[in-house]
Every structure is written in C-alpha cells, then in structure tokens.
Amino acid sequence: MSSVLYDVPGPRAIARNRILGILTVLVVAAIAGFFLWRLIDTGQFTAEKWAAFTYTNVWVQIGLATLRTLAAFGVAAVGALILAFALAIGRMSDHAWIRIPVGAVVEFLRAVPVLVFMFLLYYGLPVIGIRMPSYWAVVIALVAYNGSVLAEVIRAGVESLPRGQKEAGYAIGLRKYGVMQLVLLPQAIRAMMPVIIAQLVVTLKDTALGFIITYPELLFYARYIGSQSALDSPIVPATIVIGAIYISLCLILSFIANTVEKRLRSSAKTTRVAGANQPTQEITDTELIVTQGTLKSRAGAVEGGQNQSAQQI
To answer: Of 87, 77, 88, nearest to 197 (Cα)?
Structure first.
C-alpha cells in the first residue's frame, strides 16, 4: 500500500521511526538539562542574581521599554502593510514603466538586511548633515524591509487566484481598480493571512535590533541591567525575563491575528451560504411551452370579451 508522496511504512519502519523519535527527545532533553545544570552550577538562580527584579523602579523601566518596543512595532507594522499594498499593486501593473522600477525597488529592499538599513539611517545620514532619532531609524528600516517582503506575499496571493476571478470582474463592467479592490485583494489577504501574521511576528522581534543603535527598547534595557555590577551583573536573569516578555508579546499578536483571520473566513463563508440559500426556480422547456400557451389563451379570451362588449355598445 502506498500514498501519493511516499510508501506507507511497515511494522519495522514504524518501530525504527519510534526509536529515532525517542532518541531525538532524549538528546534534546539532555542538552537542555546540561544548560540548566550549568546555569545552576554557576549560580544564575541564586537570590543575589534575581534581587534586581525585586525593585519597583526596575519593573517600571521594563514597562517603559516594552511600550517603546510596541511603539516602534505598531508604526512599523502599519507602515509596512501600507507600503506592501502600494508595492504589490505597482508590481502587478500593466504598464512596464511602473512595473519594472517598482520590481527593482522591491528586490533592493528585500536584499538589504534590516540592521544595515538602521546603520545607514542612524550613522550614515549624519555624514551628509542629516540626523535621525534612533526611533525613526528603527521604524523606517523595519517598514522598508518588511513592506517589501509583504508586497511579494500579497502579489503571490493575488496571482495564485484562478484567472476566472479577474475575468468575471471585467465581465460585469469593473475596471482594474475595482477588480483588485473588490474581487482579488480580499481573497488574497484571506489566503495569505498566515504568512502575513508570521511576517508581523518577525517585525516585532526585529525591533530588538534597535539596541545596537541605542534605541532604548527591551533588549537595550536587558543589556543595561545585566551590566550593573552593583546588582551582581544579572545578565542571564535579565535575558530570561526579557525573553519571556518577547514570547508573550508574540503569542498575543498571533492570537489577535488568528482571531481576525477566523472572522474573515467565517464572514466569507456566511456570505456564500446566504447567497446559496436563496431559492432558485428552474423551468423546463415543457413548462415554458405550457405557460406561454396559457398566457396566449388568456390574452385571446380577454380580447374576445372586449370585442363582444364593443359590439353590444
């Protein structure tokens, strides 16, 4: 017995796969246990190392750093989505003088790493007399890179739709703008929503690169706390706490995005079901002939009655 992609494993293959799975779990658990043992052995879980997080001011600063991270992410996410739609529409233009330059811009923005963008904006622009705050250097770099990536995601989603969708839009009299806005983009966004969510999570995590250009976000403050000798240099505890905050933010973002995706899909299904539930009457050729004959006979009767009334008058 075989499937489309591979042969279904037999009893020996199933046993071998189980053994390999158990060995893999044991190896991963051993590596994790080794690192945990080293952390305990070096005193990373002692009360002195974690004493910094008993101060209220430390948590206040962590909260402010979290807000700065979210401020950079929020503006970068909105800007990246706006730029992505603009670049995607330009990439799908029928005019070569628009499509080719926009394609070159997309490929260039995708090729340059985010950190290089930040360095150019924060350290390169002052050479020509332009100084940019670290916040805007982080935001613009994230918008440029993630906007170009999302543009390709949206373009791939639109081009993956059946050709009949576009032709049906043109058939009912819509222009290209209307076809794109009302027919193609809504379907493409629903289809590519998981990829868009994943890219937004990447955008959130990439805000951590801002600490290199002294933007005071979460990772910057973790490094600051970890370098304080008065607090016994709690670099590992600070990393664990800040890492837990990053994981929580990513999980919240994924939950919100998945909720929006489910609502979009449910609304689309509801619309289709509502249209499908409308009653439709199918008339056969025999019924059509009988109906036409009945109408003709009724019309003849009415006409005969009118002529008789006229003769009596």
So the answer is: 77
- Give 263: exposed, middle or buried? Use CB within 10 Å, 0-12, 13-18, 19+: exposed
Amino acid at 183: V
Both tokens of residue 111? 């090729």
Element (H, E) at 270: helix 235-276
**Closest C-alpha to 209, from 225, 200, 196, 220:** 220
Backbone CA torsion sign across 182, 184, 185, 186: positive
Alpha carbon distance 276, 270 (integer Å): 10
- Cα distance between residue 77 and residue 139, in whole Å: 9
Rg (CA), the chain: 32
- CA 192, CA 264: separation in Å to the nearest integer? 12
CB 158, CB 188: distance < 8 Å: yes
CA 89, distance to chain mean position in Å, is 17
pLDDT in tens, 38-75: 888 888 888 888 888 888 999 999 999 999 999 999 99
- Interval 229-255: pLDDT, tens: 888 888 888 888 999 999 999 889 888
% pLDDT > 90, the chain: 29
**Both tokens assigned to 105:** 């811009």
